[in-house]
Write a structure and sequence with these properties.
heterodimer; A: 391 residues; alpha/beta; Rossmann fold; 2 domains; six-stranded mixed beta sheet; B: 180 residues; Pyruvate-ferredoxin Oxidoreductase, domain 3
């Protein structure tokens, strides 16, 4: 049913329909509403799950790790410092191949403290062996959670669903919330492949000496790469079952004739589409490639759709300090070395710590890149705040 | 697309007002988007909330910078926050104030309206939360969202006595603005 609903509420309702057996989380802005809602749903007896209160995100991640290892469908949600505090366990979950689903309500990282949105938090854990899916709007955020459990359980890989904090989590907009029956039909009960069971004692994730460890990483890397097929299949199945496209690997917008292409991910994609339509009316052909699956990275798709495009600009809400745009690096790496020569791939960092990304700034970016490639620029940088600083 | 920006202080129901307007617009058959822009999350801190209403799906995620309408829940904010920034010259600003619009001496060509929302809220709801009164006045002046839909939205979000009191406050605001 189509509802005017807050993003967090929509996600909580959809997660509940996925019937997790165990939910554990520690409240942190801007993720809080999701687990608040879930605790209420469990408390009201509408979902038969264990909601386990814990003293920290480290504990929350550890609880879902244990629950999943024991055969439960397990879910958690966090943001920012919370995700970083989970870091050690996040790697363990992937290494143990536990199909946990976690929502990251994307938020900036301290210091200085910022409760506002950017994507540095999930980016900090991109190498952990988790599938990372990014939502454009709240419909997609809700839908991706339903897909995430299926993808996770089919691949034995954990899935992080990323949605921009506040901009999506706290936004009211229309979301089509499916019927529980539809979700039950789409997502069968979890049938764990391996469980820890005291009746038949065994351990997982224990100890791999130098004779074995390298191979565990290789296998996990290959599994991540191979999950591409599952992500695409599940997205296609979802479209068939629910009648709308959500998720997948990448999406494109007005790409075919585009002279210049913006690559980005998350909620800013909506503003970019609006700009593309405006510029089209002015006679400019700008296109978009939207990354939905950031990990595994859609390298081949990016190459295929962009191989004839010579002017590309990557816009992202994260930065590798001392290196530059992270997504930009990934996009640059998607082209074979011999082909890089005449292709301009500009890199813009925007929206850090919740800085508004107005359409005017995006227009400035497009117009600048039309003239010359940009190695790296922080969009909307206030010169008056940095002048005289020891740079 | 119509854009609304709400200014207030934490605790005045700014975010709730934006949500309720968006739910009501949705009930009226329109597309709507509402989202907050928190400062520090504490009572008394300046807060903004944004609403967009359109006949088609709303995609943009930028803050509302050139609003058609401003709703100011605390008139003292006008002295400390640049609330008028970007207000369209032919737009409208509704201020919670016991003063007459011209007494505020706002530097704008937009229409200025006032209602003594805190006073009315104290009388009807018993708490100084002006949002229902402000929404009632806003809907009556602009006709942008139907009063019935707002009432439904309020009762949906705050069932029982709290909702009923807020609906009463909404109706009082409607009566007052209709008389003007």
């Amino acid at each position: 049913m189509l509802k005017q609903i807050e993003g967090s509420h929509a996600v909580a309702e959809c997660v509940a329909m996925c019937r997790p057996n165990v939910i554990s989380a520690y409240p942190i802005t801007p993720q809080t509403h999701i687990v608040e809602d879930l605790s209420m749903i469990v408390g009201q007896g509408k979902l038969d799950a264990e909601f386990i209160n814990v003293e920290s995100e480290f504990a929350a991640a550890s609880v879902v790790l244990g629950a999943s290892a024991a055969g439960a469908r397990a879910y958690s949600a966090t943001s920012s410092q919370g995700l970083l505090l989970m870091c050690e366990v996040i790697y363990c979950i992937a290494g143990m191949r536990l199909p946990i689903v976690l929502t990251c309500a994307n938020r900036a990282i301290s210091a200085p403290l910022s409760i506002w949105n950017d994507q540095q938090d999930s980016m900090a854990l991109r190498d952990a062996g988790w599938i990372q899916l990014h939502a454009e709007d709240n419909q997609e955020a809700a839908d991706l959670h339903i897909q995430a459990f299926k993808i996770a359980e089919q691949t034995s890989l954990p899935v992080m669903v990323c949605m921009d904090g506040f901009i999506l989590t706290h936004a009211y907009e229309p979301v089509d919330i499916p019927e529980p029956k539809q979700v039950d039909h789409f997502l069968p009960p979890y049938a764990p492949k391996n469980i820890v069971d005291p009746r038949s004692p065994k351990g997982i994730g224990l100890f791999a000496d130098p004779r074995f460890y390298l191979e565990t990483r290789y296998i996990l890397h290959r599994a991540m790469e191979k999950s591409e097929e599952t992500i695409k299949e599940v997205s296609a199945e979802f479209a068939k079952a629910f009648g709308r496209d959500s998720g997948g690997f990448i999406k494109t917008y007005k790409l075919e004739d585009a002279d210049l292409v913006i690559v980005s991910m998350g909620s800013v994609v909506g503003t970019i589409k609006e700009l593309i339509d405006q510029m089209e009316e002015e006679g400019k052909k700008v296109g978009l490639v939207q990354i939905c699956s950031y990990r595994p990275f859609p390298r081949h798709e990016i190459y295929n759709v962009l191989k004839d495009k010579m002017n590309i600009v990557v816009l992202e809400k994260s930065v590798s300090l001392g290196r530059g745009g992270i997504l930009a690096s990934d996009v640059r790496w998607s082209f074979p070395r011999a082909e890089k020569k005449d292709r301009n791939i500009s890199s813009f960092i925007a929206g850090l710590g919740g800085r508004n990304i107005p359409m005017d700034d995006l227009r400035y970016m497009v117009e600048k890149v039309e003239k010359e490639p940009v190695e790296l620029e922080f969009l909307g940088l206030k010169k008056e705040l940095i002048s005289g600083k020891d740079l | 697309m119509i854009e609304i920006r709400i200014h207030g202080r934490g605790g005045q129901g700014n975010v709730a007002a934006a949500e309720l307007l968006s739910i009501a617009a949705f009930k009226d058959g329109k597309f709507a988007q509402a989202f907050p822009s928190f400062g520090a999350e504490r009572i008394g801190a300046p807060v903004m909330a944004f609403v967009r209403i359109d006949d088609k799906k709303i995609r943009t995620r930028e803050d509302v910078r050139t609003p058609d309408y401003l709703i100011v829940q605390d008139s003292f904010l006008i002295e400390t926050v640049p609330v008028l920034d970007g207000l369209k010259p032919d737009g409208m600003i509704l201020v919670n104030s016991e003063k007459k619009p011209e007494e505020l001496q706002l530097k704008t060509t937009a229409t200025v309206e006032t209602i003594s929302a805190t006073e009315i809220a104290l009388e009807i709801i018993g708490r100084p939360i002006p949002n229902a009164v402000m929404i009632g006045a806003f809907c009556t002046i602009t006709g942008l969202v139907s009063l019935d839909a707002v009432q439904e939205a309020i009762m949906g979000k705050f069932p029982g006595k709290v909702g009923e009191n807020n609906v009463a406050a909404l109706e009082r605001a409607h009566e007052i603005m209709q008389k003007r």
